Amino acid sequence: MSIDFIEALSTDNLTAIKASPKTDVHCHSFLSTRRENAERWLGCSLTKPPLKMKGLGGMMEYIDTVLAPHLEHCQGFEFIATSAIDDAVQDGVVILEMSFDVRLLKFYHGGLTELRSFIEILVEQYREKVDLRPELGFARECANDPKWMESAHEAIELDLFQSIDLYSHQEACAPEAVQSLYAKARAAGMKLKAHVGEFGGAEEVRRTVKVLDLDEVQHGIAAAESVEVMRWLSENQIQLNVCPTSNVMLDGVSELAAHPIRVLFDNGVPVTINTDDLMVFDQSVSEEYRNLYQAGVFSAQELEDIRRASL
Ligand SMILES: [Zn+2]
Questions:
Q1: CA 174–ligand 1 middle distance (angstroms)
Q2: What span, in angstroms and rounded, lies between the C-alpha atoms of 15 and 276?
Q3: CATH number of the domain located at residue range(s) 23-310 in this protein
Q4: pLDDT at 64 over 60
Q5: Secondary structure (3-state) at 155
Q6: Distance CA 195, CA 25 (A)
């Protein structure tokens, strides 16, 4: 007989935690399989990331020196994306919002048509196992590059992507720089998300939500610095898609036990629990739930409530 999620957490039964349906709505396709899967595929080992990296710069340094030299090509990307969906299915993820960076087009001579067909095949291939919802990913530094901006506009017109996400260094562009792109995504019926407040700045979280008319925020944990911003997010039911291990390893948060997701939750801000980049952070959604329970951040019942709400 299957045991429920609460019992699975309190008895530390990871198999049963995995068996409960979950979502992952913060997942970047290019880095979302386990490193060990990539190692097996490559036939070589990949150095582990340090337990603490200095922000996004530290993570990029790790990616550029360890991962990219082996995986920065079409076959590498397609292997990772496919393997990432397998990982999610094995983890009990039933809804997967996976972002595909517009710069992946550099791997496809056939351009958007070719990338689209790869993504459509993935959606179809996994239809019985997981609701894969392709998301258009746009890095902030691309906002000043007319070529990538044009590609993103064209990608919205494909009627393939169900949501859009903005990420990378917050200082690389103000939200205003992608306002027209987001307006177009809104008109196309897409869900609007952006990374903001990963490393501080509660007011910038609220400002970005307003400027881009966001439905959800990726990370957004800096909102915990301001009761007023949390109240505003709560009143407007703006969901924060949090990735606890990512926040700890990139040093936005000192340790899991002190993660501000607790404060956000207590202030009525809707939160979900997600992976970010499994290849770097190495914790599945099930493991993130387990870690939060074991660190005493949430009770099993609270995690059950968060899990149910996310579905
Ligand atoms: Zn992210």
A1: 17
A2: 22
A3: 3.20.20.140
A4: yes
A5: helix
A6: 12
Q: What is the DSSP letter of 311?
A: -
Domain limits, the chain = 23-310
Q: Is 26 left (phi over 0), alpha (psi -120 to 50) or beta?
A: beta
- Give pLDDT, residue 284: 98
SS (H, E, C) 258-309: HCCHHHHHHCCCCEEECCECHHHHCCCHHHHHHHHHHCCCCCHHHHHHHHHH
Give the integer Cα–Cα distance in Å for 201 and 301.
30
Distance CA(83)–CA(38), nearest Å, equals 9
Mean pLDDT of 28-39: 97
Give residue 261's identity as a one-letter amino acid code.
I
Write the DSSP symbol of residue 256.
G
Question: Distance (Å, rounded) from C-alpha 260 to C-alpha 119?
Answer: 35
User: Residue 293: what residue type?
Assistant: Y
Rounded CA separation 240/303 (Å): 15
- Does the reported pTM lie above 0.90? yes
pLDDT the model gives residue 1: 47
As separate numbers, helices (DSSP H) first and strands (DSSP E) second, the chain gives 16, 8
Measured distance CA(294)–CA(156) in Å, rounded = 41
What pLDDT digit, counting tens, does each position of 243-272 carry?
999 999 999 999 999 999 999 999 999 999
Residue 2's pLDDT band (cuts 50, 70, 90): low
Residues that are catalytic:
198
Length of the chain measured in residues: 311
Residue 3 Cα, ligand 1 centroid: separation in angstroms? Answer: 32
Q: Are the CB atoms for 196 and 217 separated by under 8 Å?
A: yes
pLDDT tens digits for 193-222? 999 999 989 999 999 999 999 999 999 999
Find the 205 Cα to ligand 1 centroid distance in Å: 15
